[in-house]
User: Fold this.
Amino acid sequence: MLGLKLPTASASSPSFPRNTLNSTPAFLSNNFFSPICINVKPLKPKSKSYSTSLVKASLQWNRKPQLAGETPRVVVITSGKGGVGKTTTTANIGLSLARLDFSVVAIDADVGLRNLDLLLGLENRVNYTVIEVLNGDCRLDQALVRDKRWSNFELLCISKPRSKLPIGFGGKALVWLVDALKSRQEGSPDFILIDCPAGIDAGFITAITPANEAVLVTTPDITSLRDADRVTGLLECDGIRDIKMIVNRVRTDMIKGEDMMSVLDVQEMLGLPLLGVIPDDAEVIRSTNRGYPLVLNKPPTLAGLAFEQAAWRLVEQDSMQAVMVEEEPKRGFFSFLGWS
Assistant:
């Protein structure tokens, strides 16, 4: 994959899986974009540093991320501005976590315009919602929709389209719902992802109430950044201090032409740790229309790989470092992530 060949293994050298670098890994490590995997210069086969670097990269690619923090991790995915990719991020991050063998429950908290079920291809399986659970018409396990591809991923919708919520529904009801998921008989999930509606009105307040960490999705345009900055202040006022951001729809050609702010500029403006950078990819629209999340595509796309990396960092409560895009053209999207 990197155009390098592994040296012949000896009895004294560490063991590692064969053909790891010549095939697409099932999941990628948190240091996929780090210099250890990228800036390894081909040396002579007898060089000790050459062998050690490749072995370390191989082992990084084939380890499972270590879950940090207390479970379940209740994460709200928000932005303030509509149309920046919150629901797409929730679907792809959620399924990436499920593929890493973590149990996930995704809650679509957008009660007026429910779309998460469409992106997951589960719209025909939603028979009961939280409203029926609160009214006593069904049990909580009946409202949970299990994904047809990954059994450890479940979807929970607040209400059906065009249905009216009871006046009493709010943050307390969602806290009760999260507590019920924590204490269910089959076990508490590792992650509870809450897809937050756009805006900062009552729906936003309801969605962030049970969360203890947040993922802020933004795009490199001034309107999205203004709303993201306002939402950051509201999250901190609500006691949510663990806030990381995902910069979506990044185009390096526009950044180099100074027609779009760079990721480094966005990070300096918002002052938030960077969880992931998602390139602008036409495959996102295709996967949305098919109800087939991007991370399940084979072969994976650049945006799908970026979502997988963001999920990896979310598990380990890690962040990435953005670097300045140089004037000399490199190799597309990965240039500002450290490729040379």
Summary: The radius of gyration is 21 Å.
